[in-house]
Amino acid sequence: MSETQSSLFEGFNSLEELGELGLIEKIAGMFGRHRTSSTAGIGDDCAVLPFGNSESMLVTTDLLIENTHFYLDRISPRDLGYKALAVNLSDISAMGGKPVYAFLSIGLPLDIPLDWLDAFLSETRKLSEQYHVKLMGGDTTKSESGLLINYTVLGIAKHDQILWRSNAKPGDKIALLGSTGESGAGLKLLEINDLPDDEKYRQLIKVHNRPRIFIREAQFLARSPAVHAMIDLSDGILSDAGHIAEESGATLQIDVEELPLSKNLRETCEKFEWQPLELALSAGEDYSLLFTIDKTEIEKVRNEFREKFSVPFSVIGDVTDGPSELRLNSDGNSFKINKRGYDPFKNIES
Amino acid sequence: MSETQSSLFEGFNSLEELGELGLIEKIAGMFGRHRTSSTAGIGDDCAVLPFGNSESMLVTTDLLIENTHFYLDRISPRDLGYKALAVNLSDISAMGGKPVYAFLSIGLPLDIPLDWLDAFLSETRKLSEQYHVKLMGGDTTKSESGLLINYTVLGIAKHDQILWRSNAKPGDKIALLGSTGESGAGLKLLEINDLPDDEKYRQLIKVHNRPRIFIREAQFLARSPAVHAMIDLSDGILSDAGHIAEESGATLQIDVEELPLSKNLRETCEKFEWQPLELALSAGEDYSLLFTIDKTEIEKVRNEFREKFSVPFSVIGDVTDGPSELRLNSDGNSFKINKRGYDPFKNIES
To answer: What are B23-28's contacts with CB under 8 Å, separation 24+?
Structure first.
């Protein structure tokens, strides 16, 4: 198939060796990052494009592939219709934006049951109406390669409310909205044959198949100048907090004892001899929001937040002066983390 | 897999029976067309979103699936890298816009050779630089389902220069930039085993694998108030001109003797006993531009066009008062066309 020797990927022999982050670096190097104070291309949750005088347009896109990202016997059409759009809304809100328009490209096997498709689309519509997001177009095609779903979502944010990954400041507290580890446990439960029926398991699987997203909560936080950087936990805390450390040029210290581990998660991990902390740190798809916030303002913001919302708001660490790295503090010890969560090309945690 | 009985698709038993246009109708009915004088959702080449006082943002997206839309042994990585982006640039320009930003979602089999990927990306970059389009983001993931490519392209157009499908007016001439039928012949040639090497065949295959697009030509035409409606020929003249007839509420009459059939096309069709007119009318992916233009202005616009560009500019018919339909005129006879070109869900021309 090849026409030329590869110079772009010199020194690498395969995609697996290069890794996803490696590939994105190479693409960013080739095409440019297009980054200015008001514009961002490759490298954040969303692209940021200038839009009028005081606003920016945020753009995010996400490709979901049957038998790579989901299995039709493990997720209902309603949950998949919800999740495929929800993860994109989460990306927009994690940068402080309001999602506005959605575009759906969908590749459909010709034998897909129409009632399956109806349920999928109905749930997508329900979610889009809930947040006043308009489906404005897309592409429909048959697929010989299973079901394929690509959403592109456009959102709007005020320039000065964009929550860049690069904006964490020494002196900030690190906080987390929502839970962590539950989606990873849900995924592991889905992989077990003949799983006994148990409300705990159903709840964890629900977190995986139908993750809670925090659109209005994120918009509330973005309005506070005390909130500096934010990311949604799609690849796990180690990977996602690592991105903030790297982009902000600061040290992020996470106190592992402060991570919110639910009773469901702890009990299920005990039963199956899984490590809840490992799931909390390394498993992805929680879509909880991790953010940094000025420590002198955190109590005020948290109190205001709690008057409006009932989502768990945990303080889990500190941003400090120091090298661009992530450290875990536990039991009085501090460990530097090189591990970067899940790399989809490597199939192992690297 | 099903949870509920389908009410959305009542009366249909399969996707094949519903067809792609049927599915799009159902989705548009469910989600709304979001159409005002300055906004358009589902149903044109691009979505049109308000953007500032005098401009609109155009958005288009296109999903290409290995072994459904392309075969890696029939197209080089360079041609595929070109074509995957080019067809989206063509959609933006067919509405009178200037493409500005691109987003690439790509699903990669882990065993894809890195020199293949390098060639694919290099050619994408070359095309994007040629038209000053910036790649601003996307999604990279492994794929267990072959190579998957979804481009989303954003463009800008002045409100009053947007070339809506619905804007053809009785009295307009129908014109065509470029050729027709050659891409369809190229596709048929690619399906022949042990095709003899011949410059004619190579040229036709090139039209299919690396279609010429008319970005600057379309922008020139969009600046003329005499040009009313435009569409790029992605599904064949019958289908695409049919869309203009339907959306504009007018009759489009195509004089088949005026269709530009190249010498390569005619000679190749003679050799293989194919019908060149059938390819010109029903085969897709020519990406030539079909447009309607005020008949009193056409000579002036064509002369100005020819001073700047060397692309064939053919006059192929008339827009007339009458029902929303497409008619073919040939040899003094006129035929109403119900045929709608290629429907990807039906696998037959319907």
So the answer is: B23/A140, B23/B345, B24/A140, B27/A121, B27/A135, B27/A140
Q: Rounded distance, CA A287 to CA A276, Å? A: 17
φ, ψ (nearest 5 deg) of residue B42: -55, 130
Per-residue model confidence as pLDDT tens digits over A246-277: 999 999 999 999 999 999 999 999 999 999 99
Those residues whose C-beta lies under 8 Å from the C-beta of residue A7, and which sit 6 or more positions away, are B118
Chains A, B: CB contacts under 8 A, how many? 283
Token digits of residue B326:
């497409």
* Closest C-alpha to B133, from B55, B63, B213, B234: B213
DSSP code string of B180-204? SSHHHHHHHHHTSTTPPP-HHHHHH
CA separation for the pair A80, A207 (Å, rounded) = 12
CA-angle at B123, arms to B110 and B59, nearest 5° = 90
Nearest to A341 by CA among A292, A278, A291, A290: A278
| CB of A152 closer than 8 Å to CB of A60 | yes
Q: What is the pLDDT of residue B343?
A: 64
Tokens for A321, please give them.
Answer: 């002066």
- d(C-alpha A77, C-alpha A117), whole Å: 7
* CB interface of B with A, residues 125-164, below 8 Å: 125, 128, 134-146, 148, 150, 152, 154
pTM: 0.89
Q: Do A141 and B105 touch (CB under 8 A)?
A: no
CB B162 within 8 A of CB B307: no
B59 chain-A contacts, CB cut-off 8 A: 101, 103, 136-137, 152, 154
Q: Which two tokens stand for residue A211?
A: 């993750």
> Chain B partners of A68 at a C-beta cutoff of 8 Å?
107, 141-145
Asked whether the beta carbons of residue B68 and residue A141 sit closer than 8 angstroms, the reply is yes
A53 and B CB contact within 8 Å: no
The residue of chain B with its CA nearest to that of A127 is B31
List helix spans (H) across chain B. 15-31, 77-94, 114-130, 182-190, 199-209, 215-222, 237-248, 263-272, 276-282, 298-308
ipTM of the complex: 0.87
A47 to B118: CB separation less than 8 angstroms, yes or no: no
CA distance B332 to chain A (A): 38
Q: How far apart, in whole angstroms, are the C-alpha atoms of residue A343 and residue A282? A: 11
> What tens digit of pLDDT does each residue of B102-150 get?
999 999 999 999 999 999 999 999 999 999 999 988 999 999 999 999 9
Contact A28, A42 (CB under 8 A): yes
